[in-house]
Each structure stands twice: as structure tokens, then as C-alpha cells.
Design brief:
Helix content: 10-25%
Order of helices and strands: HEEEEHEEEEEHEEEHE
Number of helices: 4
Distance between the termini: 40 Å
CATH architecture: 2-Layer Sandwich
CATH class: Alpha Beta
Oligomer: single chain
Number of strands: 13
Structural class: alpha+beta
CATH topology: Alpha-Beta Plaits
Strand content: 25-35%
Number of domains: 1
Length: 205
């Protein structure tokens, strides 16, 4: 996280897994164990050229990672709209895809009208009929100019990163984007990306 922050990446989060497989070896967390080998996912966001430049340094720190590269659009950063959210609120960002994924990166303690932002957002989206949404708590991370922060053993107040993900049709997602935009006037990193529907459970494979 320190490396990515120094190199000017827009945001990054470390998410802790509980079970997984890497190169045929199962790695899962256990109740009474150090869990030093459980899977971790590092999600980082930034310009293509910037990420390509920092990749060699990143690979020198991580033991045999598995990497993916995805096309993602950054829509808001600390309350400021970026190109793509103006006008029709990014309606052109992924209207040609089967689904659109919106992601909000923020701190666990960030609030909206006195309530935890991620909790208030999920409650409102659920009330308005969003197809799917999830909140993931990270271990360590940052977004924007904020310094990396996260879980500390001696900390009284948790400052871990929180990632809120919602997926729906492009038409519906434009409605949810308006809600996210309204509730992130001062903080948070908001991104969107296209999601291809590879298999419909209602149809034979």
C-alpha cells in the first residue's frame, strides 16, 4: 500500500480471504492459527501507464501473485466528479454491456447524515430494489490523497477500508449511480466497469 500510495495510484485496498486455491494448493483460514498463508486480494486503481510503471516494483514485493487487468472508469474522487459522471451520469460508460458494476471505496468510519456511509447506502439501495450489492471490509488501503490506513492491534477505533459493490443492468445502474453520487459529496472513490453475462442460470449451459 505504501508503494502504490507513493507512486500516485488513485486508490488501493487489501481484502482478506477466508478460503481459496492458488496453483492447486488450498489455503484457508482457521480459527486457532496465525493464518499467514490465507489468500489476499489487492485491488488497485489508476491510469494504465502509471500501473504499468509500478508493476515491476510491486512484483518484487509479492511472492508469485496471480494478476488480472480490467478496464475501469473512475467517476468520483473525494466528492469531486471526474469526466464520465457529468451529463447523463456516465450512461455511456457501459450501456453496451450486459451489466454494470459500481464500486465505492471509502473508510469504515465515513458517515452520511450521522450514519455510517456504507450502511446507509446499502439500506437505501435495498429499499429501492437493487439487484445485488455487497459490502467488503478490507485490512489496509487508501484512496485519493489519504495515507494508507487499516487494522491495528492497538487501535481503539477501527479505520479499515470498506468496499461497496453493486451490480445491475445499465439502465438500473444509472439510478443507483445517482444515489451514490448524492451520498458521496465529500468522500469516497467511485468507479464503474462493464460486466459480461457469461451464463444465465435460467438457460442450459
Amino acid at each position: 500500500m505504501d508503494l502504490l500510495h507513493r507512486r500516485g495510484v488513485a486508490g488501493a485496498s487489501v481484502l482478506l480471504g477466508v478460503d481459496g486455491t492458488a496453483r492447486g494448493v488450498r489455503r484457508r483460514g482457521r480459527f486457532l492459527a496465525r493464518n499467514a498463508r490465507v489468500p489476499l486480494m489487492v485491488v488497485s486503481l489508476g491510469d494504465r501507464e502509471l500501473l504499468a510503471a509500478v508493476l515491476p516494483e510491486f512484483l518484487a514485493l509479492v511472492d508469485r501473485p496471480m494478476l488480472t487487468l480490467e478496464r475501469t472508469r473512475i467517476l468520483k474522487r473525494d466528492g469531486a466528479r471526474l469526466p464520465g459522471l457529468a451529463g447523463q451520469q456516465a450512461s455511456d460508460a457501459a450501456v453496451r454491456s450486459d451489466a454494470l458494476k459500481l464500486t465505492l471505496y471509502t473508510g469504515e468510519q465515513v458517515r452520511h447524515e450521522g450514519q455510517l456511509l456504507y450502511s446507509a447506502l446499502l439500506r437505501r439501495l435495498r429499499g429501492e430494489g437493487v439487484s445485488g450489492a455487497a459490502v467488503l471490509r478490507g485490512l489496509w488501503g487508501f484512496h485519493g490523497n489519504h495515507r494508507p490506513h487499516g487494522e491495528r492491534f492497538w487501535s481503539v477505533r477501527r479505520r479499515v477500508p470498506v468496499v461497496t459493490v453493486l451490480i445491475d443492468t445499465p439502465a438500473n445502474t444509472r439510478r443507483w449511480l445517482a444515489v451514490v453520487d448524492e451520498m458521496t459529496q465529500e468522500s469516497g472513490l467511485v468507479t464503474s466497469e462493464s460486466v459480461a453475462e457469461l451464463w444465465n442460470p435460467g438457460e442450459p449451459r
